[in-house]
Each structure stands twice: as C-alpha cells, then as structure tokens.
Amino acid sequence: MKKYLLLCKEETKVYGSKGSETREQYEKDFKTELIENFLKKLRVQENLTQEQLAEIMKIDKSYI
Asked: Which of the four, 12, 25, 38, 47, has the lowest number of CB atoms within 10 Å?
C-alpha cells in the first residue's frame, strides 16, 4: 500500500491533481496502453495475427 501511495504522489507531481486536464489525459493514455497490452498478449497466446483478431472483433485491422 505504501508503494501505491508513493506512486500517487509522484503522479500528482508530474501530471497534476486528479481532475486536471493533464492528469485526465495521462490516465486515459495509461488505460489505453493496458488494453493494448492485454489484447496483444491474448492475441499471441491464441496464436492469432492482427488481421485475424480484427476479423473476429469485426473491426478494421488498423485499430489493432
């Protein structure tokens, strides 16, 4: 828990307080990166190409 609090303090120093425009953008980018990493790990684990995953998800490959 102590490490988490330290991280929160550092994030506030660098990106501003929660609710600030800079912090909101940082959190949005962070969440996007988490989703990207999860999808890549899952795709590789299932031995799928980006094209195959896009087809399964019914989206354009450029979104993968």
From this structure: 47
